[in-house]
Amino acid sequence: MTTTAVTESGAALALDGVSRSYGGGAPALDGVSLVVPRGRFVAVMGRSGSGKSTLLRCAAGLERPTAGTVRVGGTDLATLKAPALTRLRRDRVGFVFQSLNLVSALNVRENVTLPLLLAGAREGRELDARALAGLAAVGLADRAEDVPENLSGGQRQRVAIARALVNEPEVVFADEPTAALDPVTAAGVLALLRRAVDERGRTVVLVTHDPVAAAWTDEAVFLERGRLVGRLDRPDEAAVRAALGAQTGQHLAVAR
What we know:
Elements: H1 4-7, E1 11-20, E2 29-37, E3 41-45, H2 52-59, E4 67-72, E5 75-76, H3 82-92, E6 93-97, H4 108-118, H5 125-137, H6 153-165, E7 171-175, H7 183-200, E8 204-207, H8 211-214, E9 219-224, E10 227-233, H9 237-244
Parallel strand pairs: 3-8, 3-9, 6-7, 7-8
Antiparallel strand pairs: 1-2, 1-4, 4-5, 9-10
């Protein structure tokens, strides 16, 4: 694992010794240090209960860690009071979740513009143009006036990606975004995230249990019982499956 001290200054996301406990049980995260450079697509993997979703919530500022430091684009989240933390999540972070979280009362275009409106942008042609450009990038410009319930699951997930990217965030967090999709549709969604990294320089942190999804990324990191236990550069499906099948607590494959 690349050391935090070497690369943190140029990172989109940096976790240093992050722990998160709930009550008196074993910590959900236990001293995790992770640096994600700008323009990187990283998969966070592990068995159920390994701490993947807790890591995402702490990294995105949705939860405060019990110990350690989280920085987004160099900003220490612990220094932010609740209103400033909300603004950071709104203005500098994008989210794509399995549950989609689209607003059913809004049409597709309005769903995409929502982060910009919440950030204070005024409705008008410029705002609509940004939304339509985002929808065109995911192949849905012709569905801008539809409501989400008229779209397929894959189309709704593409709208969620357009919404996550519309404010040009420093980092996009995607939590199992393909879990409910068929393989062909899932591949299309992952291709969009891959293009966001390669063509738009975005940084994407993907929480997934799926070795096929991880094979789209630049790097896979592995959690076990809240600890970071290994990584793979340029992961392929077979190598990821082997790593996930490794004995609990054993260090996994290092960079190839």
